[in-house]
Amino acid sequence: MAISDGETWVLASHNAGKIKELRDILAPRGIALKSAVELDLPEPEETEPTFEGNAALKARAACEATGLTCLADDSGLSVDALDGAPGIYSARWAGEPRDFGRAMQRVHDELGEAADRTARFVSVIALARPDGSISRYRGEVAGTIIWPPRGKGGFGYDPVFCPAGERRTFGEMAPEEKRQLSHRARALAAMIAAEFGS
Ligand SMILES: O=c1nc[nH]c2c1ncn2[C@H]1C[C@H](O)[C@@H](COP(=O)(O)OP(=O)(O)OP(=O)(O)O)O1
Ligand SMILES: [Mg+2]
């Protein structure tokens, strides 16, 4: 499907950090994003067992509510020594209201003395169109979990995640540096290649 310049899509997310990152990447492509927060859309319960399932569920719910092309991101931190946890439960580990200090502490506590500190961030972007079609794109970045947390940039688990080959955490990087490496940027690059052809 060709995408024309100057389109507005709905971004089916209530996470301010994600919304900013996705806008920063898509604005230069001529795609403006109206967020679920601005449109006052309800936050659907994420009942699927996979990132793919939950990304599709969020994009479809917003598409049905608005009749517009909708983008959703379902993402999380997957720690190898924890069999992939928190994974799709990454937001839920922060509790309600969300406290990622607590979520990062839990990752650290559950890792204990484990020798293997490797992890990856995963993002699945789903694009739901009013004709009922849906496309999904996955991006990942490998790295290690460090302690104590470092840096105030980004959001979520960024202060405990060092991408492979880097000494700094995502929390210590400027937005444009995180954007060169992140799972979300990689998923979006796959989407842009498929949808825009470049
Ligand atoms: O780049 C990231 N840097 C740090 N942490 C991250 C990142 N990407 C995902 N994460 C963690 C925190 C987030 O809260 C959770 C995603 O959960 P997820 O359900 O997909 O998003 P969410 O509930 O925050 O917003 P929404 O569902 O409205 O899009 O994984
Ligand atoms: Mg969520």
UniProtKB/TrEMBL annotation:
Q: Which residues bind substrate?
A: S13, H14, N15, A16, G17, K18, S75, F155, G156, Y157, D158, K178, H183, R184
- Give the matching InterPro entries: dITP/XTP_pyrophosphatase, ITPase-like_fam, RdgB/HAM1
Q: Where is the active site?
A: D74
**Domain of life where this protein originates:** Bacteria
One function term, GO molecular function aspect = ITP diphosphatase activity
Q: Where does Mg(2+) bind?
A: E45, D74
Its required cofactor(s), as named, are: Mg(2+)
Q: Which SUPFAM superfamilies match?
A: ITPase-like
TM region(s), chain numbering: none
Look at the named UniProt entry and state the broad enzyme category this protein falls under: hydrolase
Any one of the GO CC terms: cytosol
Pfam families xrefs: Ham1p_like
Q: What is its EC number?
A: 3.6.1.66
According to the record, cofactor stoichiometry and binding are noted as: Binds 1 Mg(2+) ion per subunit.
Q: Which HAMAP family match?
A: Non_canon_purine_NTPase (MF_01405)
What family is this protein classified in?
Belongs to the HAM1 NTPase family.
Q: How is this protein organized at the quaternary level?
A: Homodimer.
PANTHER family from the UniProt entry: INOSINE TRIPHOSPHATE PYROPHOSPHATASE (PTHR11067:SF9), INOSINE TRIPHOSPHATE PYROPHOSPHATASE/HAM1 PROTEIN (PTHR11067)
Which protein is depicted?
dITP/XTP pyrophosphatase
Q: Which organism is it from?
A: Maricaulis virginensis
